[in-house]
Amino acid sequence: MRKCFFYLIAVFCSATGKSFAQANLSDSAIYRQAIQNSIVSYYRSVGENAHLYNGSEYVPYNFQGNFKDLYFESASLQNASIKYDGIIYYNVPLSYDIYHDEIIINKYNQNFRIVLANEKIDSFAFSGYSFIRIVKDSNNTVLPTSGFYQELYNGTVKVLAKRRKKLFENVTAAGATADFIEDDQYFIKKKGTYYPVHNKKSTLQVFKDGKKEVQKLLRKNKIKFKPNLESGIIKAAQYYDQTQN
Fold first, then answer.
1. Would you list the DSSP string of 82-144?
2. Is the dihedral of CA 11, 12, 14, 15 positive or negative?
3. Do residues 92 and 83 make contact, with C-beta atoms less than 8 angstroms apart?
4. 42, 104, 141, 177: least buried by Cβ within 10 Å?
């Protein structure tokens, strides 16, 4: 079925490509919409047989506390795009369980949540947030684990965040409670190498070939790394890219 889909899209592009070769921006937008409509039609035709809906049952952590703290931004399903098993799906309601590092969706046309296979996910995005899956190997040993990393800035250098939740349990005579505390980690990818950064000093060390210029721009624009470390790292990366142009 998937091969048939790609064949139909290829035929469509070939048949219409010549007429759009000299197209203006408006025509190009129409062309892209036609492609998107074909993809939507494909999703509807395969329905529950789409590879996307072959996950296992999702079982959230069972504890006395605020279960919403498990998730990125919201426990509610958010419309997203996701590249899964080589296919990009659009307008898929999903949520991201940070504690388990899992992507959750509903089974097709059912209120029954399932977990997608992480190894089949390349990326996903929703509400202006973009995540990619990175596999830890001998080339990126500084990364804590294989999993999903948020792209905070994507220029000649890339700023990534590993969103994490640490579980703290408290057992008393009245019973057990638990809290999930954020414990995010930040990384800069520069020339194919990942660098962990946790303050202004470690960030500027990554940009040592443009350190003076970056420092000057940080001072000029009154950028502080405390209390908002994430914003400081992003601004430093942007300024570094400016000095390289």
1. EEETTEEEEEEEEEEETTTTEEEEEPTTSS-EEE--GGGEEEEEETTEEEEEE---TT-TTSS
2. positive
3. no
4. 141
- In sequence order, the 6+-apart residues with CB closer than 8 A to the CB of 244 are 156, 210
Question: Do the strands 121-126 and 78-84 form a parallel or antiparallel pair, or are they unpaired?
Answer: antiparallel
Please answer whether residues 99 and 61 qualify as being in contact, where contact means their C-beta atoms are separated by less than 8 angstroms: yes
43-58 confidence digits (pLDDT tens): 555 544 456 777 788 8
Domains of the chain, residue spans: 2-49, 53-197, 198-245
CA 36 to CA 187: how far, in whole Å?
A: 34
Tokens 């492609």 belong to: 35
CA proximity to 91, closest of 74, 110, 77: 77
Helix (H) or strand (E) holding 156: none
* Three-class DSSP category at 192: coil
pTM for this entry: 0.79
